Amino acid sequence: MKHGLLFSVFFIAACGLAYELIAGALLGDSVTQFSTIIGTCLLAMGIGSWLSRHVEQHLVPGLIQIELMVGVVGCLSATGLFFFVAWSAAPFKLALYLAVLRQGVMVGLEIPLIMRILKHDLAFEDLVSQVLTVD
Prior knowledge:
This protein is mainly alpha-helical. Helix content is 84%, strand content 0%.
C-alpha cells in the first residue's frame, strides 16, 4: 500500500505540474503568467493543506476521491479553458485563476492525507522525506 500511495503522489504531482504549464501558456506572456500561475497554485495548495484537517475519517477513500477529481477536473479545466478562450468574451483571467485555485486546493489536500495514512508505517523523518520526494 505504501508504494502505491507514493506512486499516486508522484503521478498526481506530475498531472498538477502539467496543468500549471498549460494554464501558464494560455495567455502568452510566459514570465508573468508562469510566475502568477505558480504563485496562485502554491497559495491554493496551502489552503488545501489547511482544509485537510477537516477530513477526519475514511482517509483512503477520501484520498482516492481527491486524486480522481484532480485528474478529471484538471483535464476538463484545461480543455474548458481552451474553449473559453476561443468562444467567450468574458474575462478569461478570472476563469483561469479560479481553475488554478480549484486545482491547487485539491492537490494541497492530498499530501497531508497521505502523510496521515502512512504515519503508522514509517518514521516521521522517512515519511516526510518520501512523500515530499515523490511530490
